[in-house]
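ENCODED BACKBONE
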Amino acid sequence: MSSIYHEKQRSQLCAVHAINNLFQDGLLCSKNKLDKLCLQLDPSVLMNQHRSMFGTGNYDINVIMVFLNDQGYDVIWFDKRKTLNEINIDEIVGFLVNTLSSYKVFGRSINLFLFKHWYAIRSLNGIYFNLDSKLQSPMKIGDRDSVLKYLNEIINEGHNELLIVVKKGNEKFTFS
């Protein structure tokens, strides 16, 4: 696992970390790049609807989708009325998960404030990993069947959302 790229959480930059962890490239995405996209989507500097008003990150899905689209990828919001067995998982770059997360102050979780948190799941050499920036290291999930079971648990929790990342124009990615 030492060869797996894994950014750790800092500030509210989980979207940056999720993208870089998904693509295993720490230079692909940055706070500066996502801030520029926020301003393209909404020119308001102080009350920009696509990020934290404190400038610490907390980017929304619109920013992530535009960034990935510019990189040549499509992001598909998983429809929870379908089953994960309906997707051609072999044609997927990876998954982005959006979940609720408590905020940590001095290492302690404060549940008074819940924030949306992004993290990536992807296959590396045929083994799926949870690359959540809040983890100390990547968490091995296992093979195709293991990741489908894991993802089903995630989407059945109710407050989690699952996004599927594929190469733009990938005709092989289909729901059956």
Q: What stands out?
A: The two ends are 34 Å apart (CA to CA). The first strand starts at residue 73 and ends at 77.
